[in-house]
Amino acid sequence: MKYSLALHGGAGTILNAEDPAAIKPYQDAMLTALAAGEAVLSQGGCAVDAVVEVVKSLEDCPLFNAGHGAVFTEDGVHELDAAIMDGQTLNAGAIAGARRIRNPIVAARELMRVGKTVFLAGEGADRFALQQGLPAVSLDYFSTERRRDQLREVRLRQPGSQQLDHDVFVRPDRSGGGLGTVGAVARDRLGRLAAATSTGGMTNKPSGRIGDSPVIGAGTYASRLCAVSATGVGELFIRRCAAHDVDSRMRYLNESLADAVKFVIHDESRLPLDGGLIAIDSLGNICLQQTERMYRAWLVEGLTPIVAVGENSRADEFWSGEDKASSG
Ligand code: ASP
Predict the structure, then answer these.
(1) How far apart are CA 111 and CA 95, in angstroms?
(2) What is the mean pLDDT of residues 289-295?
(3) Is the CB of 232 inside a 6 Å radius of any atom of ligand 1?
(4) Which of 321, 313, 319 has the alpha carbon at shortest distance from 289?
(5) Ligand 1 mean position to 56 CA, how many Å?
(6) Cα(237)–Cα(215) distance, integer angstroms
(7) Residue 97 beta carbon below 6 angstroms from any ligand 1 atom
(8) Taking residues 300-307, what's their average pLDDT?
(9) Cys-Cys crosslink for 213: which of 123, 219, 278, 317, Cβ 3.0 to 4.6 Å?
(10) Quick check: CB of 176 below 6 Å from ligand 1?
């Protein structure tokens, strides 16, 4: 079987999306992250390890709202959320409101490996990571100047609101001060699926607020049918159980991945979503859909990786079935 891999770097307004010079550093960072995941898959590694490597790479990159470069809460600190799910076993690990874990996705994977609990929040999450010997960092490790600018901007313009970081316009020459939440989905050569998501949440979020990213079934989900990672206004994705809904439509209605994802993202009949989804199925089909512009990249073994920003296109339903590989 061929492996396939997809990632997102968040959704939102994304000013300057058509300016190649402004977008290039993000495209480069996404390709670097994709390569980190591909290095695992091409050596026969598993989907879980691949999505961890992708997300870790994006957590370490200050351009994205996860790990170093995460947005600020209304209290001017960082509270990080991350989750991972193994579609083969339905094992999962989730971390919310962490303040000291350098790579929240690694802590989530460690929690999944230990297997006693699925979801740890706040102090307990930090303590667990320390006990596992994962690198701890000072509170300001995650801070960057542009995120401070974003917080000031939101406090000034819309005090009391929380914002997707793409939607926070900082200076005329900047595209919203950075990109968003990150996530990855993968199918390895044995057909196993995994999903991972990591975020600082939304700028100016109330202390203690947990978004959809670490909530299994909302922002992150994986089964033997599909693996899904979401980005967008977390409250909506939680209330819609969005990631799990993709699995349900495939399972109970026998829908294809593309039909299920498109329905979930674009269904306006109940509580419209604001954001996007990336998903992969057991044949390695990839589907990426959004209501807002989403940064995204994907690859299928043997084919050139694709990076995209902006509207949905035909290429966003990328069929990679064994003998049908094409670039859509
Ligand atoms: N979904 C994330 C949250 O609500 C934010 C994002 O995707 O940018 O925490």
Answers:
(1) 8
(2) 87
(3) yes
(4) 313
(5) 17
(6) 9
(7) no
(8) 93
(9) 219
(10) no
Task: Supply the residue whose CA is at minimum distance from atom 4 of ligand 1.
Answer: 234
Nearest ligand 1 atom to alpha carbon 200 = 9
Catalytic one among 73, 89, 144, 181? 181
pLDDT at 170: 46
CB-facing half-sphere around the CA of 116: CA atoms within 13 A = 3
For residue 230, give the nearest of 274, 174, 282 by alpha carbon. 274
Half-sphere exposure of 266 (CA within 13 A, CB side): 10
* pLDDT tens per residue, range 24-54: 999 999 999 999 999 999 999 999 999 999 9
* CA–CA dist 115, 128 (Å, integer): 12
Per the annotation, the verdict on 181 as an active-site residue is yes
- Nearest CA-CA partner of 33 in 20, 52, 14, 11: 52
Distances (CA, A) of 88 to 46, 47, 91, 312: 11, 10, 8, 29
With cut-offs at 50, 70 and 90, classify the pLDDT of residue 168: low
**Ordered strands of the 80-86 beta sheet:** 119-121, 91-98, 80-86, 193-199, 182-187, 4-12, 293-300, 306-308
pLDDT at position 146 is 83
Least confident of 99-108, 249-258, 289-298, 317-326: 317-326
Interval between CA 81 and ligand 1 midpoint (Å)? 9
286: part of which helix (H) or strand (E)? strand 286-290
Mean pLDDT of 245-264: 97
Distance between CA atoms of 135 and 225, rounded to whole angstroms? 34
User: Is the Cβ atom of 180 under 6 angstroms away from ligand 1?
Assistant: yes
Is 289's pLDDT higher than 70?
yes
Residue 175, pLDDT score: 42
Q: Which tops the pLDDT comparison, 320 or 66?
A: 66
Query: What would the two tokens of residue 225 be?
Result: 């049918």
